[in-house]
Description:
Blueprint: H1 15-43, H2 58-99, H3 105-123, H4 126-131, H5 147-154
Helix pairs in contact: 1-2
Amino acid sequence: MKDFTQDEFFELGHHKLKAVQIISTLFMWLILLAPLLVLLNSLGKKKIWSIIYQWHTHATTIFTHFLENFIGVTFIVIALICLLLLLRNNHLEQKVYATKKTYDEEKLEKREEILEELYQERFGEEKFRATSSYYVVASEQNLPDTLVQDIFKERGLH
């Protein structure tokens, strides 16, 4: 249970969640990088990027000081948020996931039954498999990459 991670973003479906998270992430990167690019473009007398605005007046120094303060405060806020998320994750991993089941037991039992049927069909009875110290698997007994997922999907357990 220690290595268990639950994240709906990486599960099948949840398209609205994925779209919102991707768009908000790109928007936040734009908010973070735009002032930095303007600042870098304004530091010298010559433009580095022609599509990005360049300050070349008294406002340059004011803007530079503003950005220095803004970036400093932003760094501190982001560091605090990361620390809080780290502490939350550690709490969930040590206290919640260690005591609470985050999966459907009935679904798990059905999946185990399906896997046992598959193993019996491909490799023989469980007693034989457990007591065999050496067994050569014929090439036709090898499991295709998506066989288990396909079987679960067929039976409505995806």
